[in-house]
Amino acid sequence: MRNLALLLTLAAAASCVSAFRVPLYRKSGVRTPRTVKRQTPTTYKENLLNYQDNLFVGEIYLGTPPQKFIVQFDTGSQFIWVPSAKCLSSICAIHNRYDSTKSSTHQSSKLGYNMTYEDSSNVDLNFAGDTLTVGTLKVTNQAFGQALTMNAQFNDSSYGRFGDTHLVWD
């Protein structure tokens, strides 16, 4: 009887939780092996290879009306960022770029940030806020970075990042 009560309680709780889905797509052949240094008195180097050279990307939309971006879902990064229409790097020209003038819900900022990843890829960001849509989830005033410059390390992976973020623009 206790098991039945527990099962009914869990079923009721599960029905209250709403979920959203984000289709992910496999992107092959874009990463190179990296070197990792251990944090010990002696430094060790180890080449890390990812399985079949894959990463996962998906669609997000920013702005009103929505502007579509293909981004890498990156749990090792803390920000969402996409190339900006103001980006002067040649690498930006081959991807969709966020145009703040085309969004009625854009909120500008003077905050900037320079991010360097482990593989020496580097991006200069200007933060902003706008409506973000991921799958069926819609977030208003979501903080994100607009990439103003990106170095050549990004090559064909410069479509942007969707980091593990919890920032909402106020």
Automatic annotation (TrEMBL):
Pfam families: Asp. Residues 1-19 form the signal peptide. One of its GO terms (biological process) is proteolysis. Keywords: Aspartyl protease, Disulfide bond, Hydrolase, Protease, Signal, Zymogen. Residues 56-170 form the Peptidase A1 domain. GO terms for molecular function: aspartic-type endopeptidase activity. This is Aspartic peptidase domain-containing protein. It comes from Jimgerdemannia flammicorona. Belongs to the peptidase A1 family. Disulfide bonds join 87-92.
